[in-house]
Amino acid sequence: MTIEQDYEYCRQIIKHHSKTFYYGFSTLPREEANAVYAIYTFCRTADDLVDRPGTAADKEAALEKLMQDIDCFEKGQHRDTAMWRALADVRERFPLDIAMLRKQVAGQQMDIAFRQPDTLEALYLYSSHVAGSVGELLYPILAGEDTREGRQAADSLGIAMQLTNILRDIGEDYREHQRIYIPAELMQHYGYTQEQIQHHEITTAFTALWESLAEDAEARYEAFYPLITTYKRTCRKPLLTAAMVYAEILEEVRKHHYDCLTQRNKVSLMNKNRISQRAVRYLKEVEA
């Protein structure tokens, strides 16, 4: 296979699994878009190793093998697969933080021996591993620089997106994986129980609990938007659009009366196009 075919394989992965990310990032310049596709494919691969059928021991062994593959990749001895060939090409063109690949896998390992986080801090730590790591991987590629402040902002954006995932998928995560990502201390504070999730009870306590995390995510999105000018000009609209569309998922849950227990709420293509135009208007203001 050619490197173009390797990237096409990765493009199909993100197109299939994340229409929101693909909608935004597919409009990046070609080299940056290919880098995003390859990195997304790595993260999807790690995630799928945990969510596929099998014993905990099998999943742990698969992730440990992936860690070994990262070690080989760091030494320039990558596996001969489309994903690893694409990542090797990305590494020749852009900075690629190998530590963030390991952090991503470490985050997936947390899901194998899963226990509900006790505190918000524990949820932030998990979210930083599985999503903040993606932000830090993409930041130097899309920004063309690598600063501490930029990494912190990219990590926080990743946490916002992971909180959004969690708030969108409360019912699905419990139904399919018996996982509750909402911190136990928050559920206790608002007086909402695991049994109520199981019975799909959308109560005043549930909406207050949900909104407390949604407002956290939205504050992170709002803090990130002005920082879009620290990214390459050609990468600003795609990244901003992806972030704004992701934030809109929270509004979709609200529109459906907070029912994230029996359905998955999505942003329509028409709405994505509207948000894309809003991103253009926002950029005109901050770039003026």
From TrEMBL:
It catalyses: 2 (2E,6E)-farnesyl diphosphate = 15-cis-4,4'-diapophytoene + 2 diphosphate. It comes from the Bacteria. The keyword Transferase applies. Belongs to the phytoene/squalene synthase family. CrtM subfamily. Pathway: Carotenoid biosynthesis; staphyloxanthin biosynthesis; staphyloxanthin from farnesyl diphosphate: step 1/5. Gene3D superfamilies: Farnesyl Diphosphate Synthase (1.10.600.10). Its EC number is 2.5.1.96. Keywords: Carotenoid biosynthesis, Transferase. It comes from Macrococcus brunensis. Pfam families: SQS_PSY (PF00494). InterPro entries: Isoprenoid_synthase_dom_sf, Squ/phyt_synthse, Squalene/phytoene_synthase_CS, Trans_IPPS_bact-type, Trans_IPPS_HH. This is 4,4'-diapophytoene synthase. One of its GO terms (biological process) is carotenoid biosynthetic process.
